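Below is just one:
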Amino acid sequence: MLAIAMATSQERQRTNLGRLKKIMDEIESTTNDSDLIAELNELLNKQYPLSLKWHMVIFKSEIARSLGYLEEIRKEEVKATGGRQKQRKESKGELKEVYYNSSEIPGAFKLDYSIVYDAETNQYKWLKCSTPRNTRAKVFTIPISMIGDGKLQWGEEMKQKWGEDSIGQRELVERAVNN
């Protein structure tokens, strides 16, 4: 009986993660996304016991960041369709390609930068994005890259942004000791 319940739970988790991935792909390709975002938030509240807790924390954080970015894109889409698109004021100085503190980035240009982990200097930095700020394409790149075969995983995109998964490795060791 326990094996059947566990298999059902694993299948349900695999199905929910697959649906999350599909929803994120659909949101990137449509402007009619309110129902999709509601379903995304509903699926995020479900349990994913096969995934490490640390991976779930980061996954939810990345989705929240992506949804915040998406909200800014939606605002720009509304402005563009309203016909009164407001131009950003250009920065007084030259914009840099790399910043090490987000407070140094001029406010109107913050969405043009994304945070990444630099393993050589062992610190985070803000890099200028090559993707236009008002595009939905690849808004969910990092969360989508975390969805593996039935559980969340730490992929190359995650290593580039967050560095090595030392916390996840410790959690795996703790799970092995406790089981």
In short: The first strand starts at residue 98 and ends at 99. The beta strands are 98-99, 113-118, 123-128.
